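Worked Example 4.2. Consider the chain below.
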Amino acid sequence: MICEAIDQRHILELRYHGYSRIVEPHIYGEDRHGNEVLRCYQLAGGSASGERAGWKLLYVQDAVLVHLTETEFMPRADYRVTDKVVVNAYCRIGLQNPAQQDMADHRQGAP
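Applying the procedure from the previous section yields the following structure tokens:
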């Protein structure tokens, strides 16, 4: 279901660590320890850190009641196709335009 959401660019609703969250999934895969993780942008909901919106890395095993919505989203301007934490991606949003990655790199000060 997560790859379906990424492929179709549909928002997910889920519960994570006791909080309801609404997220835009961007990359789903494994970290270096073999844990399934989801790099997503949280639009709304709670968070133990207090940050209600922003980039999150969620451990999929801790997510429950995952629901695929019909609401579509566009990849975030600061989205990076490569992710240092997700070492084995099952699926990810690709960039339509390579200039988008150049612009994102420039904003983040990448060489």
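Confidence is low (pLDDT under 50) at residues 97-111. The chain is about 15% helix and 45% strand. Compare this with Example 4.1 before moving on.
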